[in-house]
Specification:
Elements (H helix, E strand, L loop, with lengths): L7 H63 L17 H7 L2 H23 L11 H19 L14 H22 L1
Helix pairs in contact: 1-3, 1-5, 3-4
């Protein structure tokens, strides 16, 4: 007996094979899209960690420090070249408990910034980090030494890095742009 390639059994087998191939292709594409969606979500979550655990914290602490720093001067204004580390003697001699408390709080905030820079180093959006970050740590340490010594520091010192706030803001902007781009990929 000759076999008929158009028999219902053969046609059913061919249709089932084609359906299985199509289902496999669809399943593969769906799995690929799901993996890509998970990858995008992980990248977005990492960016959010960068903002929440590092840069947002740095920004907030710096804003608090700047506000306190401004209160150390009459009317909130100060000469451009005025450096706290050079006026420890003066502030201590005045005996103004408000100013002394302000300096202590600035030193605490600086320590929090240092701790954040060190403990969240892996979240930095660039390597090596901006020079302003290391300069800040050095400046902060010098301020701490001067305050504990109860006098101005003699000799060379590291000035406060004026670009620190810009570097923090630039990183925040870059990460927020990255999140927007990743959101667009969804």
């Amino acid at each position: 007996m000759a076999s008929n390639i158009f028999s219902p059994q053969v046609i059913a087998s061919v249709v089932a094979a084609i359906a299985a191939i199509i289902a496999g292709v669809i399943a593969t594409r769906t799995a690929k899209r799901q993996r890509e969606a998970v990858r995008v979500e992980r990248r977005i979550e990492y960016c959010r960690r960068q903002l929440n655990d590092l840069y947002g914290k740095l920004y907030t602490l710096r804003q608090a420090s700047k506000s306190l720093y401004a209160t150390l001067h009459a009317g909130g204004s100060r000469p451009e070249d005025w450096r706290l580390v050079d006026h420890i003697d003066e502030i201590r001699a005045e005996g103004d408990s408000s100013k002394i408390g302000t300096v202590k709080e600035i030193i605490k905030i600086n320590k929090s910034i240092e701790d954040t820079l060190v403990s969240q180093f892996g979240l930095m959006d660039q390597f090596p980090p901006p020079d302003s970050f290391q300069q800040f740590v050095s400046h902060s340490r010098q301020l701490q030494v001067a305050w504990n010594k109860k006098s101005d520091l003699a000799g060379p010192r590291v000035s406060f890095p004026r670009g620190l706030d810009d570097d923090i803001a630039k990183s925040i902007d870059t990460i927020r742009e990255r999140i927007a781009e990743l959101d667009a990929e969804k």
